[in-house]
Every structure is written in structure tokens, then in C-alpha cells.
């Protein structure tokens, strides 16, 4: 704990120093460079000698102003923290080492962010969330992101980037633990008697029947003793089976206690506590995530040659994009475990199965505290090995010291802050006036709306569309994304570096690729499995009027079946029933329901939907593989286009505004919009007197069309807007060139006149 406090203190100290650097130094650079250029142009030796004198006078103030030059502050270019800077660490003072160790933190935090998308079904089943509520939880990540991204990208851009990133990674770990908290609180609540309360609210009132047994047949007593001893089993199974009227002397109890069964039934509704805490955890993740992209991109661009930026961004992005594979692979393992980690008679194929969703948040949250340590030790600035610093400072450096010292002599911190805020607003104004940049971020935002919506619910979509258990859905998606995202990002980075793509080339590449992705999306519309005809309530559109020999007269009516409890069973691999109750089943043996009075000779049925003969899953996965690979090649060109369109001093803020806009209009809106679309495809809801819960049955055809037609349209719009961005950029370049030529012509005229 003491070590943690020391580290935290150091980190907060660095943040304060970073804040000072961000406000006092950047605004002086333009003035310094201008004066230095003027001094060189006119060859003022006197001025140069005066600068030398001022520089020597300012030597005693070098530590105060915090210059970054290697000869002035070695701690800014060496690995370590405080006085702990052993020689063995200095071998890691290079960009490749930083990329490797930061990729571990980025990989862990990205895995934690993506992991929740693989557990949507488990969360909906345990806490009764609808898809719209699940979309809100996912959108909370970007709500937190939007709150902080512009301020972090502008005010902390000149801070100690590695230590800031390390600190943010630790906060990320805390957010993971917060997301896991609802499981422990919910488990404690359930352990205090929620199960027995649920049993008493179901169709069979245990306590009521106990009192009736004392007045009637004592032979039935053992049945209810067994039922109370196995209350969890009856909660899971009995409510889905046929409820036979039970006679007690002159009384007949049909399981309703004289009231309508629907009024007594209280299925699960939304758990507000869980919704709030998971949302808080996701908001914290978003706040922390806001610093990653702008800070890392600027750190790389400031410490490597400009022609090498694309390569390093591609390598780093490629390594971090292994996160989806790790996320879905771990979700496959955790989804096979029941969420209480106890033995159960349910199987992962059962619609009531809830995987151990909370384990992922716990594991990756704890790993974050480990991987944050190496990143903390990297220097503020990588040493420039090719530079030879002289004993006598250059005029540029001298002017920098002199002007900075003058600012500190003023001691007017408020004035400096005001200047910095004014510069912040001017930078935003310059960016919004750049037409190509505005069209670029609108295009990417629209594209990311579709991408975010599909990625958020992809695991659930595969599970529902192809009738798979959650662990299989996650396994297929994990295999699809293994190395695909990383390979695409790395290849995109290498391609950008190899062909030295400019902003114009990057914009053209993005526009054409978006159009290609829209065409590929059409393939999704011919994959998928139709929902089979189901013997069930009249509310089911795909109702199967079962043959007379498979439906005994009025057997369903006498069973008091609940049309809100969906648990499909298959008879003879030909007919799917809405639940065991609609087949008249009264008992269960493993995954087989027996003594089904609605079937001939009390036949049996098996859990699950009958085989539909659908074999398009592999076509879907192949299309997903191709889409992910092609789309991931655009990561680096998108960054390069953004950095090259804007002015040098605006590049950090441009990345911040890009991520702000894509989060607001893309990653935040996507889950919300697609969550509502998915809810519109629902046929059967779990409902209660307190509200609507999660969806039990979807119309697969509508589900497919709602998702992929929407994504295709959004991608086509994004492609056209990116093409307009390219046209605007070419026009602006021609205009700048014309203005420069006119200025040069004017200078030549003035020179000729003076001569």
C-alpha cells in the first residue's frame, strides 16, 4: 500500500508538471522560432551575442522551466522514476520497447472493453435487460469518453505521456472490478431467500400446499418435501412443464390458488442496481480510454521521423487488435462455467443457462494493475541519437530559455491559462473551418455507427441466428478475429509507409474500401437460419398447427401453460414445441422431458430446437473474416489522413476531435440504435407486473435485415462523404498553392524595386 501511495504521488506530481508545461511552453514556440529566423536572416551578431549572455544568465533557472533538451534534464530521456534509474533499464529507451510494453496495457484494457459484448446474453438473462438497455450500457463507455477526450488531448499532450498512460491503465482496472460488483451483491441477495420467494410466487404455492396436505392426503407429503429440498430445480423446470390439477379431498388445486396464473407469476424484470453499477464502470472506462489514442499518437509522431509514424502506429494498433481474439476466447471458457460456479443440472445449450460473465471483468481488471508498471518507467521523450548538442546553446534554444524565463518572471499564471484556453478555442475553430477534416470525421462517424452496432451485438446475433449456445458463438467469433484485425492493421501500416501515402492517397483508399465493404455486406443478407414452425401460443407468428396425432384434445388448456416462458423442445426431430408444457410433459430426466400427455403414448421430447438443416454459418464466418480484415487495413490511413490534413500545432487536438466525434456519433449511437432495432425483432418477451424483461424469441429474418441493411446503407453514405472530403482537400491544396505563388510573385516585385 505504501508503494502504491508513493507511485500515485509521483503520478499526480507529473500531471501537475505536465499541466504547467502544456500552458506555458507551447505558445512561446512560434514567437521563439520567428525571432530566431529573423536573427539569422539579418545576421545580427550583436543580437546573437546578447542571446548568449541571456542564456548563460538563465542557466540557474533551467530546472525551474523544465526544458526537454537532453543536456539540460537527463531524467526526461532516461527510463526510470524518481531516483530509480538503473543502467539495466536504459537498454529499453527506444520506441520498439515502448510499443511492445504499451501494447500489453492497450491489449488488456481493450480486451476488458470488448469483453462485455461477448456477455450480453448472460447479462440480459440474469438481470432482465432488454437489448436497448444493453445498448445503453455499451454506450456509457463512450459517454465517459466524450466527457474527457478533448481536454485530455489538448491540456495533457505535453505531459509525461508514459506515466499518464500507466495511471489511466490502473483506473481501467478499477472500473473492471466495479463492473463485476453486481454479481457479488446479487449473489448475496439471492442467498438470503430470493429463491424461496420466487418459488412461492410461481404457479405452485409451496406454503399453501403444505397447509392443504395436512388436511388431505399425507401420501403427497413426500412429494412436497422433495420439492422444497430441490427448490432450485423446481424453479428452473417445473414452471416450464405441464401443471396437473391436484385433488385434496373435495378441493381441486390447479396451481393458481384461485387466482389467474398470470397475475401470480413474477418473472425477472430489469435489475436497476446492476444496470447502474455496470454503467458506472463503463463510464469510467470511457474516461480512461479518452487519453490513449491522442496521447499515444502524438508521442509516437513527436519521437520518430515523420515517414516512420505510420509504421509504428500500424505495429501498435496491430498488437492491440489482438484484444477481440483474447476477449472472445476467454469468453468461450467463462461461458462454459455456470455463473455461480456451482454444479447444476442445466447445460450451456439450455436457454436458461447463464455463464460466469463476471470472471472476465475480475481477471482483466487485476491484470491491468500488473501491466501498468513497465509503461510508467519510460521517459518523457526518447533520446535523439543523431543530435550532437553543443556546449553553447543555439539561438533557437537561447530564445526559448529567455522568453520562458520572462514569462516566469511575470508570475501571471492566470494570464498564461487564459492564453492557453484562447489557443484551445482557436485550434478548434481552425479545425472546423477545414472542410476536408470535417467531412472526414463525419464519414468515419457514420461508418463507425454501423460497425459499433454490429460489433456490440455480434455474439448475440450469431447465437440467436444460428441457434448456438453462448460459448460456441464466442468461440466462432474468436477464431474469426484471431490475427485478422492485427494482420490487417499491420499490413495497412506497412502499405502506408511503403507507398508513402499522403492525405490525398489515404482519403482515396478509404473511400474505395468503404464502397467495397458495402458490397460485401450484401452477402450477410443471404446467410442465416429461418425460425422453424413452433407449436405454441397464438402470439407466435411462426405457429405450427401440429397434426392431430401429435396434439391430444385440450391438453394444453388443462396444463395452464405460460406463453411468456420460452423453452423449446423437439419431438422426433421434426416438431418444435414452444416449451415442455405445450407438449404436456410432466417430468424430466436429464435433458429429456418425459410423460408428455399431449403426445401419443406419453412420448418424450428433447431440449432445444429441432435441426433446421441450416448450413450457412460457415459462409457467415468467411464473410465476417473478409470484412474484418479489409476494414482493419484502414486504421493507419485514417490516422495519417487526419494528421496530414491539419496544421502541425493542431494534430493532437485533431485526433482528439476525431475520436470525440466518432464516439459521439458512432460508438455511442451505434449500440443504442442497433439495440432498438434488435428489440423490434423480438417476438416473445419475459414480462412481469414491474415491467418488461429480456427477449426470449426473435424473428430471425427481421433481425438479419434490420442489422445488415442498416449497416450497408451507412457504409455507402460514409463512402460518398469520404469522396467529398478528397475533393475538398484537393481544392484546398490548389487554393493554397495559388496563394503561395501570388505571395512569391509579390516578394520578387518588392525585391526588384529595392534593387
Give a written overview of the molecule.
α20 (435-465) runs parallel beside α28 (669-680). 45% of the residues are buried. The strands form 3 sheets. The chain has a 6-stranded mixed β-sheet with strand order 3-5-4-8-7-6, with no helix packed on it. Residues 1-35, 38-51, 53-72, 189-234, 246-269 and 386-411 have low confidence and may be disordered. The protein has 3 domains: 1-60 and 401-433, no CATH class; 92-186 and 270-382 and 434-529 and 615-737, Growth Hormone, Chain: A (Up-down Bundle), CATH 1.20.1250; 187-264, no CATH class. It has 755 residues and is mainly alpha-helical. The chain has 29 helices and 10 strands. The protein is 65% helix and 5% strand.
Number of helices: 29
Q: Main beta sheet, described?
A: 6 strands, mixed
What value does the average pLDDT take?
Answer: 74
**CATH fold label of the largest domain:** Growth Hormone, Chain: A
Strand runs, count: 10
Rounded radius of gyration (Å)? 33 Å
Strand content: 5-15%
The main sheet orders its strands as: 3-5-4-8-7-6
In the CATH scheme, the class of the largest domain would be Mainly Alpha
CATH architecture classification name of the largest domain: Up-down Bundle
Query: CATH superfamily name of the largest domain?
Result: MFS general substrate transporter like domains
